[in-house]
Design goal:
The protein has 424 residues and is of the alpha+beta class. The chain has 16 helices and seven strands. Helix content is 48%, strand content 12%. The chain has a four-stranded antiparallel sheet with strand order 1-2-3-4. β1 and β2 (26-37) form a beta hairpin.
């Protein structure tokens, strides 16, 4: 006897476990699930009742062994669709194919295909590379990929993705004026495919050449490098009328010229006043490798002494105003510069690095020592990781000279001043 929708609904209404057979091995299994408890009852009857779920099953024999396959839940899978799936399974059996094994193979193929998509490959590459990056840099990389690459390329198979498809994706980024961002994403895709080729997940690298994109104007952080302007800036910072912590942070930004994020999240445990050193932990550096040593001038040490009573009992030199468990906001120092009258076209927090680099090079300091103090890592990252103290004696001298140079420029009040030219 063949099933009907009317008979199925009548059986379900009885709320009892049952098997409703339709022929050809197909049946509908009615199975109770966890009781549904009523919050209260007024008639004294039981406060709960059983609920049924219905599943299509098909029984068949393979090599003399009884087996079962599922065709889905009712009513999402209708009686008509269940019969269609039953007939397809019977055709497979007649062709010498085990329907259950066929389904497992198809499922495995789908899983394999999902793993071979561009997004899966990119996330695999990212997970390995991000271990060597600062958290802020890692966030930028994955953010760009998720926003601009994955929506168009993420679901495509790694081995079939074409240069034209990648280029079209990058052109969309260009069209909104983000030329530098398009070049960055192209670099990430190129690195991802190089990784894929090396690991055997792709045969070739389809990434378009840089020339396929419009040239990107290199972004420069605004900075003051003219000596009179530097002196005026230092005087302005010293007279800053905001909080003491912000004034000291700006002064240390000028004296140490570390990256803004490294300064904002500076921790007291990283400082050794007796050794005159600030050792920034590897995981906080833009490129992870080893701790970065910042020799501290007497001027920097004096600022730390001023700051110690204010924040020395906590973790950070410059904690957030909202919570001592978080560092100062990235906008705090920028806002302070704007309050001092410096626009974003004149001076940025990152600009202290360019200021120091320019003047130190102009005064004859060895370029390698300057680059090492700026934590610009050489191409050989492994070698660099073991050269934390590279050029350290000269860097100590350099940092002391730089602090004295800033003092002299600030004291000059517009006059040309010299404290001696260093010749490396």
């Amino acid at each position: 006897m063949r099933l009907t929708d009317k008979a199925i609904k009548a059986a379900i209404s009885k709320q009892r476990r049952a098997k409703l057979f339709d022929g050809g091995g197909l049946y509908l299994l009615l199975r109770p699930v966890a009781p549904l408890t009523r919050p209260h009852t007024t008639s004294g009857e039981a406060g709960s009742r059983s609920s049924l779920r219905a599943f299509w099953r098909q029984k068949y024999y393979w090599a003399g062994v009884e087996k079962l396959i599922s065709h889905g839940p009712y009513p999402r899978v209708s009686l008509r669709l269940a019969r269609k799936r039953r007939d397809e399974a019977k055709e497979q059996l007649e062709a010498g194919i085990d329907p259950s094994a066929q389904r497992k193979a198809a499922k495995a193929a789908r899983r394999s295909a999902a793993k071979s998509t561009f997004e899966a490959l990119a996330r695999e590459w990212y997970a390995k590379q991000a271990k060597t990056w600062a958290a802020s840099n890692a966030d930028k990389v994955i953010g760009r990929l998720e926003n601009d690459a994955f929506p168009r390329l993420g679901g495509k198979p790694v081995r079939s993705l074409t240069s034209d498809e990648i280029l079209q994706c990058l052109r969309l980024v260009e069209e909104r004026g983000a030329h530098e961002g398009a070049h960055r994403i192209r670099q990430y895709i190129d690195a991802i495919y190089k990784y894929a080729v090396h690991t055997g997940q792709a045969h070739a690298n389809p990434t378009p050449a840089p020339g396929a994109l419009a040239p990107a104007k290199k972004a420069h952080f605004a900075s003051i490098t003219e000596p009179k302007g530097v002196g005026a800036l230092i005087r302005a910072i010293r007279s800053y009328e905001g909080t003491e912590q912000v004034r000291i942070a700006l002064q240390l930004a000028a004296l140490t010229f570390v990256r803004p994020g490294e300064l904002r999240a500076a921790e007291w445990r990283e400082f050794d006043p007796d050794a005159g050193e600030w050792r920034i932990r590897p995981e906080r550096m833009k490129v992870k490798g080893a701790a970065h040593i910042v020799p501290l001038s007497k001027q920097a040490l004096a600022l730390l002494e001023q700051l110690k009573p204010l924040t020395g009992s906590g973790k950070y030199l410059f904690p957030s105003e909202r919570s001592p468990l978080r560092p100062m906001s990235e906008n705090t120092l920028t806002a302070a510069l704007r309050a001092l009258g410096y626009s974003k076209e004149q001076m940025t927090v990152h600009g202290f690095r360019h200021m120091a680099s320019t003047l130190l090079n102009e005064h004859g300091w060895k370029a390698d020592a300057i680059e090492r103090q700026l934590a610009h890592m050489p191409r050989d990252q492994v070698r660099a990781a073991y050269n934390t103290a590279q050029y350290l004696p000269e860097r100590r001298e350099l940092m002391a000279w730089w602090a004295n140079r800033l003092d002299a420029l600030a004291a000059a009040d517009g006059k040309v001043v010299s404290i001696g030219r260093h010749l490396a």
